[in-house]
Design a protein that fits this description.
Blueprint (H helix, E strand, L loop, with lengths): L1 H19 L3 H11 L13 E5 L2 E3 L2 E2 L11 E4 L4 E6 L2 E5 L3 E5 L10 E12 L4 E5 L3 E14 L3 E15 L2 E10 L6 E4 L6 E3 L7 H9 L23
Helix pairs in contact: 1-2, 1-3
């Protein structure tokens, strides 16, 4: 069983790379089996692009047709994953994660996200957003962001754009990060004399960023080898 699961995960990873690079023809048979569509903006009323494993929204088992709105709570069990869109923002929530979308003025709108635990890759439109974990706050405007939340620390990679990263319990611990391409990942620690520390680039890919940007009709500011997307490239960095 473990070998089969590993093989499936490798197959999905290869598919993400192929789709993100624009290799649709080669990926088409596998796409039909695993994802069912090329990455493009979803139809009106649809939130979920990919659903894998056990995923719940507000405690109910999610399906590909489940909407995800402000005020919702999304949980992925170990081995699960969901790729979804809310308004002009898109996300990959990995297995073993719990994410809360705070209420907002419109139901299909994101202002504040709370990553209680787990791993989240996000791309955001130009409006202001905030991501919170138990130990960190991240202020965002139009950027790509990867966050891992653990009880005693958070990992934050500003993939591109500008963020303000700080400690959740101490407003004096704060740093503004401007990044063009994963330039300044950080650990935010729950305690100690050095609460913000430099961190390596880990556990997310440019292909995944390209994929979720495509779901909201954009491309990231970097160029992948073989990139054939014709949508406008982001220039707001």
């Amino acid at each position: 069983m473990a070998e089969r699961l590993n093989a499936d995960e490798r197959r999905r990873a290869l598919l993400v790379r192929a789709l993100a690079a624009g290799a649709y023809a080669a990926a088409a048979p596998l796409a039909a089996e695993v994802l069912g569509r090329q990455p493009a903006p979803l139809p009106a009323g649809r939130s979920i692009y990919l659903l894998d494993g056990e995923v719940t929204v507000n405690g109910q088992q999610a399906t590909i047709d489940t909407p995800i709105r402000s005020g919702d709570r999304v949980v992925t069990k170990a081995g699960g994953r969901v790729v979804f869109v809310v308004g002009q923002d898109a996300f990959i929530l990995r297995g073993g994660s719990e994410l809360e979308l705070a209420p907002a003025p419109r139901e299909f709108m994101v202002e504040t996200l709370r990553l209680v635990t787990g791993k989240l890759l996000s791309v955001f439109g130009k409006t202001r957003h905030q991501v919170r974990t138990p130990v960190a706050t991240i202020g965002i405007r139009g950027t790509g962001l990867y966050v891992e939340s653990e009880p005693d620390r958070s990992y934050v990679c500003t993939c591109y754009g500008e963020t303000v990263i700080g400690a959740a319990d101490d407003a004096a611990v704060s740093e503004t990060v401007v990044s063009r391409h994963h330039d300044a990942a950080r650990y935010v620690l729950a305690g100690g004399s050095e609460r913000l520390r430099a961190a390596p680039f880990v556990n997310h890919t440019d292909e995944e960023l390209t994929l979720i940007e495509a779901l909201v009709g954009r491309t990231p500011p970097f160029v992948l080898p073989g990139d054939s997307y014709s949508t406008p490239r982001r220039g707001d960095y």
